[in-house]
Specification:
The protein has 306 residues and is mainly alpha-helical. It contains 13 helices and no strands.
């Protein structure tokens, strides 16, 4: 039997790294930039965070180092795409490969090394409440910050001048420039934020979820984050739903493996990614149909009004 409470707790934990990276990429894409280097930035955050945690014994410094690792790689992306005008797709792919290779080099000798445990911020009395205690009160501070960031980013994009400027830069480069906004500067700031969030997600992966450094441990999480932004139609609330959907499938397949369900292990391992692809295909199909039907609907409206 699969305990639903344990499953939900695992769902939230598994989804947090992807959620953080997707929220960062959401801001990047809202500013009009496509960063395909998220995977590389996540793995850099994972290795930098783990090394600092092992060497310093400070989880706070470890998370800061993880953010710095992701942001450092994003600086390279910003310079190449915003100042040297290199192709964004090619640059992002190159930085992903670079990040994976550099992280593997930096992480040599750190596999299986001890790190301090990440403390739970809420009191044990709350965590021991049946059912709702583990689900609501048993997580670490970064998990709560990730969920809070969903609402904060949604509010900033919709209701603040900063969000308006970011959206204006992304929707019309020339119009934003004509209004006096520093387009390159704003996009660089968005790229740095996205890299720091991806690095934080990677640090969470090595410090909280796995509690170890393993080469290639992101295992496509950065690509899932990119897919979630498209799935969410660039809305932060939908990013949260998509991350929990992915986390739920991932947590379920792990428990099905533990229960020795007679299904090939390779199929169970691939199930979260297969579900993500299926959802994207269905959504793309619906959008294509809407785009095809839009001119016809407009013509009927014009005819009726005439």
């Amino acid at each position: 039997m699969i305990d639903p409470v344990t499953l939900i707790v695992a769902l939230v934990t598994i989804s947090t790294p992807v959620l953080l990276a997707a929220l960062g990429e959401l801001i990047v894409e809202k500013s009009g930039v496509l960063n395909l280097g998220v995977e590389g930035m996540m793995i850099m955050g994972a290795v930098c965070g783990f090394i600092v945690a092992n060497q310093s014994g400070s989880i706070t410094l470890a998370f800061i180092a993880g953010m710095a690792g992701g942001a450092g790689l994003s600086v390279i992306f910003a310079i190449l795409t915003q100042f040297l005008m290199s192709n964004q797709v090619a640059t992002g792919l190159a930085l992903t490969l670079f990040g994976l290779g550099l992280a593997a080099l930096l992480g040599v000798g750190y596999e299986g090394q001890p790190i301090p445990e990440v403390a739970k911020p809420l009191p044990e009395m709350l965590r021991n409440i049946p059912v709702i205690g583990p689900i609501l009160f048993s997580h670490d501070l970064v998990t709560y910050l990730a969920i809070g960031a969903v609402f904060a980013i949604g509010y900033v994009l919709k209701h603040t001048r900063m969000g308006l400027v970011i959206r204006a830069v992304g929707e019309s480069h020339d119009a934003a420039h004509a209004l006096g906004y520093k387009v390159v500067r704003i996009r660089c700031a968005a790229i740095l934020f996205g890299g720091a969030m991806a690095g934080l997600g990677g640090a969470f992966l090595s410090l909280v979820y796995v509690e170890n450094w393993v080469q290639g441990m992101t295992a496509g999480a950065g690509w899932i984050a990119l897919a979630l932004v498209v799935f969410a139609a660039w809305k932060s609330g939908r990013v949260l739903f998509g991350a929990w959907l992915f986390g739920g499938i991932a947590a379920l397949q792990l428990r099905l493996q533990a229960a020795e369900v007679p299904v090939p292990v390779s199929l169970l391992d691939a199930s979260p990614y297969l579900v993500t692809i299926i959802v994207l295909v269905v959504m793309s199909s619906d959008r294509a149909k809407a785009a095809i039907n839009a001119p016809a609907a407009l013509g009927k409206t014009f005819h009726a009004s005439g």
